[in-house]
Amino acid sequence: MDQHKNNSKAHIFYKIIIVGGGFAGLGAAIKLKEAGIEDFILLEKASEMGGVWRENTYPGCACDVPSALYSYSFEQNPSWSRVFAQQKEIKQYLFDVVDKYKVMPHVHLNQEALEAKWSDAEQCWIIQTNQGELRSQFAILACGPMHEPVLPNVKGIEDFKGEIFHSSQWRHDLDLTGKRVAVIGTGASALQFVPQIQPKVQQLTVFQRTAQWVLPKSDMPLLAPVRAMFKLLPMTQQLMRGSVYGIFETINGGIQSPAAMKQFQKLAKWHLNFHIKDPILREKLTPNFIIGCKRILQSNNWYPALAQKNVDVIASGLAEVKGNTLIASNGESCEVDVIILGTGFEIAEPPIANRVYNRFGQKMSDVWQGSPEGYMGTMVENCPNGFLMFGPNVAVSSSAFIIIEAQLDYIMDALKQAIELGIKTIEPNPKITKVFNEKVQAALQSTVWNKGGCQSYFIDRNGRNSTVWPWTTFKLREKMKHFELKEYLIDYLPESQTPQKSEHVM
């Protein structure tokens, strides 16, 4: 297989370059191969594939979407050991899929995309990597939202005398036994690792800026007979996937209505009251916003861990560090040996936007000014032939795979049409993009994300919800089934350069 072609200027040139080796990038590679398109490479900055499941190895790291739905619909895994798979198993599933679909010949490991610029002069993407410059007609930016840690800007934190690390850069070499540990943040990661470290440490202090609604997690081992049934009768696993999808879709629909979510909130309230008997701690852990406004969390051992004698919850953010003393915004303080930052990831502003330049040489993040905007969450104005996975306003309260597969259907349809019809460039139509985004923002106004009374990572620094898809995932999938060329600005190749249909698409 000819892995690359040289154009007249002797630059390395591909039809398509995928950036990112997580589930989105891997899915893109599989779908390109299925379409008979082999002239592509996948750039992965690390020494192995895996994305968020390679980066996060903290104790207790697991998925909060049942495994039946947290997997490709076309590649079900009958061997999951639990209802909610853990990190190692999910990473192994990714490796198994890489092998099965023979993706590795296209993968360039340890090659980081430092900059991607669209050139009108050359009519292609110019991608600077740590191993040199590459060019491609199309780029699929599959960098994912959960890999760039948010590090708090706290006075004196750089002078902390003990050990400090982010949960996504877990120090497995550091024994926490008998240590005084502070955890900053109470998001999805902290909910998983706090119960794992609580029994080991001498004292655990949790800094909670905002209390979270936490639902019970219906996790359990999947016994051998169940796994055997999934293997022998794949339809049974499909049914399970369908029912899990239905549950998530019901929650997703409920988020459109604050009144409906207040009813749903009763389950979370019961869960809190059942586990936390101390009235002072219970008050600290009771949120003052409607469930669904922030990401909905699930755990069976979070509340029991916080109720232990060696745990103290400070209902305030960290304001200052003096030597080994941590001082909260409310004045409370504690002495610690280790700080673990459970402060999450950059969601509202995709980090890739700092590396992508449009046709005018403007950085995507500078154009957005804190409020990302695109068309169908997949293409951005003045960035021809560039596709963004997990782009603006495409997040849903469901499995990431629902978004990935919907977007890949859309992108593949665009690429197939481009190859068949001899299209040189595709880019969003500014007028249609404007109308689309006005509709999205109008639809979000009445949702719990916007009206639930919380500050969440869905809302960007300008106070705009530039993250969430406001409708059902049924509508998302329906809209993305077919790439409507008439909604875009299209430029065709001269007829003499138009490829024959059989050249790339089988």
Automatic annotation (TrEMBL):
The chain crosses the membrane at residues 12-30. It comes from the Bacteria. The keyword Transport does not apply. Pfam families: Pyr_redox_3 (PF13738). The keyword Membrane applies. Keywords: Membrane, Transmembrane, Transmembrane helix. InterPro entries: FAD-bind_Monooxygenase_sf, FAD/NAD-bd_sf. This is NAD(P)/FAD-dependent oxidoreductase. It comes from Acinetobacter wuhouensis.
